[in-house]
Design brief:
single chain; 321 residues; mainly beta; Immunoglobulin-like; Protocatechuate 3,4-Dioxygenase, subunit A; 2 domains; 5-stranded mixed beta sheet; 3 helices; 21 strands; 13% helix; globular; binds fe (ii) ion
């Protein structure tokens, strides 16, 4: 572990102790105090707003190929594909985010590092499916740019998303910080049917030097109940998980705002339950759960979910080294 990491863990620990003692002092008004306190701490990668995913002005564009193959092991780009590795993940929700949608087919295509599409084969083209918990993830490379007339289109990824028994949504995803977003005829639209505002998403770089982005897809469909923002703020939330990425141990800090049956579950990217950490009747308070994965748990992405009275009110993504 690096010194920087140790330092940050100590800081987290101090902050946690400080918060815990504050909460203990405020026993009488605990639920509201706790709620306010944790709301301010909540990690930014969670579903902050429920903005339905909009269509893209350019529709599917000129480079769509039908019948692309299923993505194997979440790898849209082969390991030696030139470019910066880029991992996109998120969850598929219905229009008001009260349900998550399993089994949505997500058809993805984008240009290579040099801005070229494979128009004869299926390189950087493939389909994945939201898993039993509504999550999806794929790894590719950051797309290159190509000329559209006399100007470059911003980096973008094309999607066709088809929830079970509902129509397909065709759109494009853009990335914050791209200087061509503001001049692109599609990415620059900020209202109406083709509003791209919530399809220009932040990109971070993880400890492996890979780019990462979270994109929740919100569209017409039916699924399973999930906690919406309001439920999270009245029932409970995960407010910190560290270290993340982690190797052999992870600590999950969460708050419960009402007396309830509470469980913490860990799912892999296929939606398989890999760990059930707690399943208890709890009163309003801050709690800590720990996960020491078995040796058969492989490296990769996992989702830690908080269930309150059998409703999944919150999740965070973690990476096991
Ligand atoms: Fe394109």
């Amino acid at each position: 572990m690096t010194f920087e990491k140790q330092k940050s863990m100590k800081k987290d620990r101090r902050q946690f102790l400080k918060n815990t003692s504050l909460a203990a002092l405020a026993t009488v008004t605990l639920p509201s105090t706790l709620r306010a306190e944790l709301n301010s701490e909540i990690a930014s990668e969670t579903l902050a707003n429920c903005n339905p995913t909009t269509l893209d002005y350019y529709g599917q564009g000129p480079f769509y190929s039908a019948n692309s193959p299923l993505i194997i092991n979440n790898q849209l780009a082969v390991g030696n594909e030139p470019g910066t590795r880029f991992i996109i993940s998120g969850r598929v929700h219905n229009l008001d985010c009260t349900e998550y949608i399993a089994g949505a087919i997500i058809d993805i295509w984008h240009a290579d590092d040099a801005g070229q599409y494979d128009n004869t084969g299926f390189n950087l083209r493939g389909k994945t499916t939201s898993n039993s918990q509504g999550f999806y993830l794929f790894e590719s490379i950051y797309p290159g740019k190509y000329l559209n007339g006399s100007s470059y289109r911003p980096a973008h990824i094309h999607f066709k998303i088809t929830p079970p028994s509902y129509p397909v949504l065709t759109t494009q995803l853009y990335f914050q910080g791209d200087s061509d977003n503001s001049t692109d005829a599609a990415a620059s639209i900020s209202s109406g049917t083709y509003d791209a505002t919530h399809r220009i998403i932040p990109v971070t770089t993880n400890s492996f030097g890979q780019k990462e982005a979270t994109w929740d897809i919100i569209l017409d469909g039916e699924g399973n109940p999930v906690g919406i923002e309001e439920m999270r703020s009245t029932m409970g939330m995960i407010y910190k998980i560290y270290p993340n990425p982690f190797s052999d141990f992870i600590q999950i800090n969460y708050g419960v705002f009402q007396k309830a049956k509470v469980s913490i579950q860990v799912f892999d990217i296929q939606g398989n339950l890999v760990a059930k950490l707690q399943d208890l009747n709890l009163k309003p308070e801050k709690y800590t759960a720990e996960w020491k994965p078995d040796s058969n748990i492989i490296s990769g992405h996992y989702f830690v979910a908080l269930k309150i009275n059998d409703v999944q009110v919150h999740y965070l993504k973690v990476i096991k080294n």
